[in-house]
Amino acid sequence: MKRRTFLTALAAAAPAGYLLTTVDFNSDTTLNHTYNPKLPYDRVPSDWKGTPRLSNGLFQNLHHPFEASLAAVVKWKFSKNPQEEEKKTDKRRLEVHQMPNPLPSGKDQLIWLGHASYLMRLAGVTILTDPVWIDNWALKRHSKLPLVPDQLGKVDYILVSHDHRDHCDEATLRLLGKLMPQATILTGMNMSPLLKPWMPKNPIQEAGWFQSYDLKESLRITFVPTRHWSRRGLTDTNQRLWGGYFIESGDRSIYFMSDSGYDRHFKLIADTMGSPDYAIMGVGAFKPEWFMHPVHTSPMDAARAFMEMGGKHFIPMHFGTFDLSNEPLLEPLDWLKANPVAVDGRMIYPVVGRNLLA
Hints:
By secondary structure, the protein is of the alpha/beta class.
């Protein structure tokens, strides 16, 4: 296999991993802070300076700098998975309910479409998060999509949390750009050059952490920190900002984590934005933990973060749809069902295609 093909295959096989980069992480750089001057800050931590960005242009996590290691990903991919046989024999899949068409009008909705993709309808506004709906060479769905895309109807906002392929799929976004060119893309800084060729008619807003988007409706969506990283090709590590979303309507608040390792930012978000009514937390793609924990929360870490945030309802995601790591597809849900006290009995059981709002 040619060297470039091998590295590209590793990138597909290890979407949460650390891959070869041309960036010298030991070079002399200074830490700066940045933001989008076109967007407001509504609420920020008391000592907030802006989104961390190195003088070489690369974005930075708040507390733990990202470091790339080809050796680590090679060690993982060429080590024996102790759960390999268990994964082969475990044929269980997520429960999927086909969604009605059209959706009931005038009712708030929070519908899981698999992995990190949700359809939300809040105060009459329709939102999609991280739509990855079409199989490609890197990702194959193990849970059926519960809707027909061209029957979805009007969508106001599409949230793209970062550039990794299990959250940002070119084929899906090209399709949505044709079906709903009026939808505004809400994303992180420096994502436009990636997204605009796929969705040339869609307006795009880029935010720094704790900045709120410019929305017409009585809805507030704020881009918030995660402990993660970004990469699309072989030489663009951390050139685009990653993050999650804090979504507020008149009577509900929803925290959408996206991808994140455990860190102090969860408590920081709650202290700044308030405790969320619904916390949508990633729980899958967490093994081997020595490799995954800086960038993905395990169900144990997600439960801990949820309790620190003081959320009312816990909704697990980022498991069961794509096979990204060593654990069986439904192991995160198994752990949460066996340990309900970890989230104080506040978990909403996740079913693809069903409205999860209590």
